[in-house]
Amino acid sequence: MIPLAIASEGETLRIVSIRGGRGIMRRLADLGLVPGSIVKIIKSVGRGPILLEVKGSRIALGRGVCMKVFVEVGS
Predict the structure, then answer these.
(1) How far apart, in Å, are the Cα atoms of 9 and each of 12, 26, 46?
(2) CA separation for the pair 75, 23 (Å, rounded)
(3) Neighbouring residues of 50: CB distance < 8 A, sequence distance ≥ 6
(4) How many other β-carbons are positioned within 10 Å of the β-carbon of residue 4?
(5) CA–CA separation, 10 vs 35, rounded Å?
(6) For the sheet containing 38-43, what is the strand order?
(7) Which of 22, 31, 38, 42 to pair with 51, CA 20 to 30 A apart?
(8) Per-residue model confidence as pLDDT tens for the chain (75 residues)
(9) For residue 60, how many C-alpha atoms fall within 13 Å in the half-sphere facing its CB?
(10) Exposed (0-12), middle (13-18) or buried (19+): which is 67, by Cβ within 10 Å?
(11) What pTM was computed for the model?
């Protein structure tokens, strides 16, 4: 299990857990990021936001938020 922020570009990952308060958990759930969801990292360069594909949509998340989302490789 690793934080989403340190996963490599192009990887397909499964969300295992989210460690944060109710606000961040609700925000991520509204975006489709819940435990069990499959995400693909589209772009992760430098210090900027990470571009993800989840359930057919592309979203950008800051690295701080991505440090609270724990994933494992594979589907």
Answers:
(1) 9, 25, 11
(2) 27
(3) 4, 5, 41, 43, 44, 60, 61, 62, 63, 66
(4) 24
(5) 20
(6) 2-3, 69-73, 12-18, 38-43, 50-54, 57-61
(7) 22
(8) 999 999 999 999 999 999 999 999 999 999 999 999 999 999 988 788 999 999 999 999 999 999 999 999 865
(9) 6
(10) middle
(11) 0.88
Classify 9 as helix, strand or coil. Answer: coil
Return the DSSP state at 11. -
Could you give the CA distance from residue 35 to residue 14 in angstroms, rounded to a whole number? 8
Rounded to an integer, what distance in angstroms lies between the CA atom of residue 61 and that of residue 33?
A: 11
Q: What is the pLDDT of residue 45?
A: 81
